[in-house]
Specification:
By secondary structure, the protein is α/β, with parallel strands linked by helices. The protein has helices at 6-20, 24-44, 164-177, 206-210, 247-264, 290-299, 310-319, 335-342, 346-352, 364-370, 375-400, 413-426; strands spanning 2-3, 51-56, 60-62, 67-75, 81-89, 99-104, 109-116, 122-134, 140-146, 151-155, 188-194, 216-221, 227-233, 241-242, 245-246, 268-274, 278-283, 326-330, 354-360, 403-408. It is built from 12 helices and 20 strands.
């Protein structure tokens, strides 16, 4: 049961009756009249149980992009119902304008839409629908909250896709230049041409040469079927925020851009994410919807307050196959975490694969290191300088072991990693 704002107004109206007949019995009689009216209005209100609710699936949306929650409200009774409907969602779904007033005639139905603006990745759930059926006098209402299960899957925003067209143009240019035929084995056969000095005699096609007046050699196309393995660190270090964005989210943006680019290049992409255990594992080889599948897999990933099990993650990389691959470690360049967890497994990875460590750099460190106008700022600058020196030393150590290090601000990480991938392909190293 619920009462409306008309009941207090009706009680205040009783002051007029008290002024006309100033007696204690007048107050009691007026309260009795109000109580009777409220009770009668409550009895005359349409029972909420006669109202049926059906939720239409909201589907899938990117974080920070609008979506719509739709409810079908039907009146199974014969009487008209005055309703107040509240479509409740968890706070991060960003439901606005979720209270709807309507009058529903008997056997009628209506579609209600609630705008959503989700701010968090994952499956966001509806909390229920509250129905309030108001009586004909507008004094009292019957109320009921019903379960109307529903969820919206919120995938990463993929803002870095704005860099995709320019990188695809570079990839097409690279493919054009790589159309130059190469000699030797281990690549795909393309065509035959005349032998010239310097050609490998092993590439001579003796049968074709026997049918021609000149010696003929085979030419080969560079292989396109390369492997890219993305490793996302979801441990405690990925929970840190840079410009109020978790490092993990920035790593996801880089992973999505590189996946879209590598899939267009015809490369096989595998993805593993984890901390003390494997949280996601994907084989996207040959998938036309590789980016979409990766978005769905990353939607529910959240940083875990635990250390990364790098031997387990390295084992997951090796389980994808022994073929040489570009292994991209999307993990923060935190000296203690790298030296204690990642460093022992790097020799095995570097021996079989080309390894890149991609990290989000915090520009605030440089700002702190340069600000020295006061005593507090001098101490902060000394701490920032020490942190930067340790990061540089760790990066130098990784590069000595054969690991390429990309340590740039969050907004620069996706395009820089994509450029590194294209540079490797241009140099024939991938």
């Amino acid at each position: 049961m619920a009462i409306t704002g008309r009941v207090p107004l009706l009680l205040l109206l009783g002051l007029v009756a008290v002024l006309v007949r100033p007696a204690g019995s007048t107050v009691w009689w007026w309260l009795l009249v109000v109580a009777v009216l409220v009770g009668a209005d409550l009895l005359l209100a349409v029972a909420p149980r006669s109202i049926s609710i059906e939720r239409l699936p909201p589907g899938r949306v990117r974080a920070g992009h609008p979506a719509t929650s739709m409810l079908v409200i039907a009146n199974a009774g014969s009487r008209a119902a005055s309703l107040l409907v509240r479509d409740a969602w968890q706070p991060t779904a960003g439901a606005t304008g979720n209270r709807h007033r309507l009058r529903l005639r008997g056997s009628d139905r209506v579609l209600l839409e609630t705008p959503l603006l989700p701010t968090r990745r994952g499956d966001l759930s509806a909390l229920g629908v509250t129905l309030r059926s108001v009586g004909p006098l507008g004094l009292a209402a019957r109320q009921r909250t019903v379960d109307a299960p529903g969820a919206v899957r919120v995938v990463p925003p993929f803002d870095s896709r704005k860099h995709l067209p320019s990188r695809l143009a570079r990839l097409r240019d690279l493919d054009g230049r790589s159309a130059v035929r190469v000699r030797g084995q281990g690549t795909e056969f393309d065509s035959l041409r005349e032998y010239v000095r310097g050609d490998d005699v092993r590439s001579i096609d003796w049968r074709a040469s026997a049918r021609n007046r000149n010696v003929v050699v085979r030419t080969w196309q560079p292989e396109r079927d390369r492997r890219v393995v993305l490793v996302l660190d979801t441990s405690r270090v990925s929970a840190g925020r840079v410009a109020d964005v978790p490092r993990l989210d920035s790593a996801m943006e880089a992973a999505l851009l590189l996946t879209a680019l590598a899939a267009r290049a015809g490369d096989r992409v595998d993805v593993v994410a984890g901390d003390r255990r494997i949280r996601a594992r994907l084989r996207l080889a040959g998938a036309r919807d590789a980016t979409s599948r990766l978005e769905d897999a990353l939607a529910g990933l959240q940083p875990e307050i635990a250390e990364a099990d790098w031997p387990g993650l390295a084992g997951a990389v090796q389980s994808f196959g022994r073929q040489r691959a570009l292994v991209v470690l999307l993990t923060p360049l935190e000296p203690s975490a790298v030296e204690e967890g990642l460093l022992p497994v790097l020799p095995v990875l570097v021996a079989h694969h080309r390894v890149v460590l991609a990290s989000v750099h915090d520009p605030e460190l440089e700002r702190l290191a340069e600000a020295r106008s006061g005593l507090d700022e001098v101490y902060a600058a000394a701490a920032a300088e020490q942190t930067l020196a340790r990061r540089r030393a760790t990066a130098d150590l990784l590069e000595t072991l054969g690991v390429a290090v990309i340590d740039v601000p969050a907004e620069d990480l996706p395009p820089t990693l994509a450029d590194h991938y294209l540079a490797l392909k241009a140099r024939g190293l991938l």
